[in-house]
Amino acid sequence: MDNKILVTQSSMPDYQEYVDEIKKMWDSKWLTNMGPIHNEFEAKLKEYLCTDSIDLFTNGHMALEISLQALDLKGEVITTPFTFASTTHAIAKNGLKPVFCDIKYSDFTIDEAKIEALITENTCAIVPVHVYGNVCNVEAIQKIADKYNLKVIYDAAHAFGEKYKGVGVANFGDVSCFSFHATKVFNSIEGGAASYRCEDIGTKVRAIRNFGIGQSMVAHVGTNAKMNEFCAAMGVCNLRHVDSEIQKRKLLVEQYVAQLSGVEGIKLSEYTADTAYNYSYMPVVFEDSFHKSCTQVIEDLAQNNIFARRYFYPLTSEFECYKQLNAINSTPVASYVAHRVLCLPLYADLSSQDVTKITDIIKR
Ligand SMILES: *Cc1c(COP(=O)(O)O)cnc(C)c1O
Prior knowledge:
Layout: H1 15-28, H2 36-48, E1 55-57, H3 60-70, E2 76-79, H4 85-93, E3 97-100, E4 123-127, H5 138-148, E5 151-155, E6 163-164, E7 167-168, E8 175-179, E9 192-196, H6 199-209, H7 229-260, E10 266-268, E11 275-276, E12 283-286, H8 294-303, H9 332-340, E13 341-343, H10 352-363
Parallel strand pairs: 2-3, 2-4, 4-5, 5-8
Antiparallel strand pairs: 1-9, 6-7, 6-11, 8-9, 10-12, 12-13
Helix pairs in contact: 1-7, 2-7, 3-4, 3-6, 7-10
The structure holds pyridoxal-5'-phosphate (PLP).
């Protein structure tokens, strides 16, 4: 099964580069708890993400869950159902109620025009997602947040290294959370980070991340979400190559777009000149006017050993555990997209011949 093409393939440094990086640990025997490689990774990320506050976590989910806890929120949180399970779970785990807002058909991010109608006296925050690396309308969302005194926590798991109008995405909202999971555009095997506007939040988050242990005593109900040195070392190595990885992805996405745009019934994500993209995903919506259904496309590809993924289906609002919220029919655009969208294979080492093969199978 060597020639299987999966939806993604993890970026990895040369074996020797990683070995050189972890060799330091055999000398120091410092494996976790904010070690030297962790701190080096953190410093390099601050520079790369153009922010002066970054804290590292075991994974992106814990970055999100702990950030929400640190903000001391209560009540309802307006969010998108068109996302990975993590976003909604992080809200629910904090005893908050997710209120699902519809998305825009243009770029699949939360529809800022539909947020205000969902605000009640119990609303405390907005959790939008820069889905597929498409940056939300950060200006409009901030305006609404300021008007109603709400916190904004961005799930930036898909937006690593992106800039909007020249500003790093880590700088929008009160908090932005990133994921460095093996399947993401940039990985530290498992890992995540959060960036904050207000340093008080950072101090609290760092305590919660380490069992609530702060300066003197335990003031918060904590957990264990520290990044270990092996993961940090992978991050340090991969960060050296991430720009060239993104450049390779860009060429592949441009090829996909050239070969699929203008095809009747195929809807691609809209790209805007304001965003410096990381080309993390290649989403395609197969509208009803396309000559095959989304499931037919999956089957045709699978017969050729090519595996696309239904990111994101079903909507998180349709999960068994959120059904009682009764939100299912209130997000028609999200529902439409979820039933028809596929993410096509995309990773730096995918060949241009494979992209042609994939688009040929789709169009055939
Ligand atoms: C991957 C992902 C997460 C969670 O990140 P992990 O590092 O896997 O915990 C959260 N939100 C979205 C949208 C994601 O895609």
